[in-house]
Design goal:
By secondary structure, the chain is α/β, with parallel strands linked by helices. It is built from 13 helices and 14 strands. The chain is globular, with a radius of gyration of 25 Å. It binds S-adenosylmethionine.
Length: about 425
């Protein structure tokens, strides 16, 4: 096989049959299109023919699927590797291959795939697992070990029974954590390739996510991490600390207290700050402190939203807020959009995406913030600040993040318009009837 993208893809696709597995997975990452996160290609069998499935994950959380007969797939897979993505990783039973494009578009191919000799192939066909039939393919979760078993910490946290079976009432939590891990997997390429990764889980509660992320980095990615969870509840923190010690999870620690009072060890800057379902302004406390710590990446899924809903005072928006349910939806969207704007003002690039199926939980939005290498220009900052101020003027209130980092002009320290303007609407009903 020649060391070119085309020869590699032609070998992988043209010699793939239902009995001959030439590759297990191809992962495309670092897409040139910011709306796309990654594509994963896996082979499968349908009516005696080998196919490949391309699953493409978009930055808004959606996934697209495309099935192509293997004999027609090489062209498409080449196109993905050459034009769409800057990195391609191929995993095969005969070694792996990595294709990378540098900033200057120089292509580097590290091809460790060994093509089996013809006679060797015959023997290997016999032992190679046949391709999975399409209807056999069930969703494979990141937390599942290769042999289908689940990691022990899930039992300790009450997600599985002693036999490793997921408890029925914990299935939604299990799916939620796995989906969160997929979103962590999406940003993996942004973290340093070597050395210890420093990760905080703020408002960690019972720490399902903390343990899962620790497992992902140490067991799946083989990395050394220093991970720390913070929460107000002494009993859960004591339980998490005992569990981590019992499972021999080195460098996984917890502390009990208010995040606002947490001081990282001198000189420590987290590469990743996580937070799952911190209620109401607790998400704002997480974001404020993630920025204070200088986190490189922040993944935060807010929980319930009360602050704006209970304080919005807007004549212009009263046609919405007088309907309580619509007022809540509007307040949720305004709260999260202002959080994103505030993070952009703190020099982060921000995206929002769906966590899991919205039918499973209404608390389903993830804010992903990635610290920019180059600070925004003053003009960019001021444009966002003006937008933030205008939004506060429209809703008649400054939410937590704005109130605690700067004082938008015309508002008092509680976030209400000065000079009694808040009385435009009846403050007891906030314009709701
Ligand atoms: C709904 S729970 C979510 C827990 C966990 N992340 C999960 O998804 O299972 C929210 C947690 O935030 C914690 N919390 C709220 N405000 C906090 C603060 N200022 N500092 C530390 N923890 C806080 C609470 O104690 C609670 O455990």
């Amino acid at each position: 096989m020649e060391n070119s993208i085309r020869s590699i893809m032609e070998y992988l696709c043209d010699t793939l049959t239902c009995d001959m597995l030439t590759f297990e997975k191809i992962t495309y990452s670092k897409c040139r299109d910011s709306a796309v996160v990654r594509s994963v290609v896996t082979p499968f069998a349908k009516r005696g023919e080998a196919y490949v499935q391309i699953e493409t994950f978009l930055s808004d959380g959606k996934a697209l699927h495309r099935n192509i007969p293997a004999r027609e797939a090489a062209e498409v897979l080449c196109e993905y590797a050459e034009r769409l993505y800057k990195q391609t990783n191929v995993k095969t039973p005969d070694g792996d291959c990595e294709i990378r494009f540098s900033k200057k578009e120089k292509c580097d191919i590290r091809n460790g795939i060994r093509v089996p000799e013809t006679e060797e192939r015959g023997a290997r066909v016999a032992r190679v697992q046949k391709l999975p039939a399409s209807h056999d393919r069930k969703k494979r979760y990141l937390l599942e070990n290769a042999d289908g078993t689940l990691p022990a910490f899930l039992y300790h946290l009450g997600i599985t029974d002693e036999g490793g079976r997921i408890l029925d009432k914990k299935r939604p939590k299990y799916r939620q954590i796995n989906r969160f891990l997929e979103l962590v997997d999406d940003i993996y390429g942004l973290l340093p390739e070597n050395g210890t990764l420093v990760i905080y889980d703020l408002c960690c509660g019972k720490s399902y996510l903390t343990f899962a992320v620790y497992h992902y980095f140490t067991q799946i990615k083989g990395r050394t991490v220093k991970m720390h969870g913070v929460d107000l509840k002494p009993d859960v923190i004591a339980y998490c600390s005992e569990t981590a010690a019992a499972l021999g999870m080195e460098n996984l620690s917890f502390s009990c207290g208010d995040i606002n009072a947490y001081t990282p060890p001198a000189g420590e800057v987290p590469h990743l700050v996580l937070s799952l379902h911190a209620c109401d302004i607790a998400t704002d406390i997480v974001l404020t402190n993630a920025v204070r710590f200088g986190a490189k990446v922040v993944l935060s899924t807010p929980c319930c939203h009360h602050e704006v809903f209970h304080n919005i005072r807007s004549e212009e928006l009263s046609f919405v807020t007088r309907h309580s349910m619509l007022g809540q939806k509007l307040s949720d969207a305004v709260t999260d959009a202002l959080r994103c704007l505030w993070l952009e003002m703190q020099n982060y690039d921000v995206q929002t995406m769906e966590l899991i199926d919205p039918e499973e939980t209404p608390k389903n939005m993830m804010i992903r913030a990635i610290k920019r290498a180059k600070p925004r220009t003053e003009e960019d900052f001021l444009r966002r600040k003006a937008q933030y101020d205008a939004a506060c003027t429209l809703i008649g209130f400054v939410p937590y993040l704005g109130r605690n980092s700067f004082e938008p002009s015309g508002f008092d320290r509680n976030g209400f318009l000065r000079d009694g303007n808040q009385n435009q609407n009846d403050p007891d009903t906030n314009g709701k009837e």
